[in-house]
Amino acid sequence: MTDRTHEFRTLCQNQIPVVAQPVKVRKQKPALSALQQQVQFNASASDVSKEVNKVSQRLQQLTLLVRQTNMFNDPTSQINELTQLVKQDITLIHTKLDDLEMFQRSHHADYSSQHAAKHSDAIVTQMKSTLMSTTKGFKDILQVRQDNLQHQHDRKSQYGRATPSVPLAFSAPLPRPVGVEGEGGGSEHVPLISAQSQQQFVVPEQGYADSRAEAVSNIQSHIVELGELFQRLSVMISAQGDSVRMYDRCMHAPMTWHAHRLCIYLLTCRDL
């Protein structure tokens, strides 16, 4: 007799209804409403505005320090510190403005009206224009600082050339005390400043020249970077202005069409 137990078990398993496994639905993050988007945009714009105000105050302080042209009391450390802070602030604001513009463009279709979209574009454009003006002011004051350093270096070089390089001595021999004769039997020249003392004067002067040369080099590098940033901002503001003008045309087109239809209607009524 043939053992068909295996076939029986297979048949029973096929008769068992297959229960479908529940599909796990990934919860999607709810999209921001138009009001939430506007609130988030306004908060980001307010943050950027505060940063612009802070960098403007620092720039005013830097301007006051740079315009102090005293060669012997030059606030170099304060100027260098403020210069670095202003440069970092401008770079940070530029990054935040890029993020704000990307957020505004990504939610452009979700605005409740074209007027709201145009308003957001105008805010971004105004902030970019303010940043560009601040960048230009920073670049101008760095140029003034560079000119001042060059002027100080020229004056220092002029005074340095007027200083004799040989030990200072009396043109006439100094009289020796009575009964004391020099090695050659006569009086000798006595230098007013020893060679060692003069060497001590030369070393700080060389360090001063090196520090000024380094400061000028750093300022030139900052000016080049700010020029590139200024150029990028100009391009971005031009593109933003094109977007605003496009919204104006889109808003005025329906109004023009309705005005045209109204004129036709009024002319028809007058003919009647």
Automatic annotation (TrEMBL):
Organism: Aphanomyces astaci (Crayfish plague agent)
Domain T-SNARE coiled-coil homology residues, every copy: 206-248
GO biological process: vesicle-mediated transport
Annotated protein name in UniProt: t-SNARE coiled-coil homology domain-containing protein
Any one annotated GO CC term: membrane
InterPro entries recorded: SNARE, T_SNARE_dom
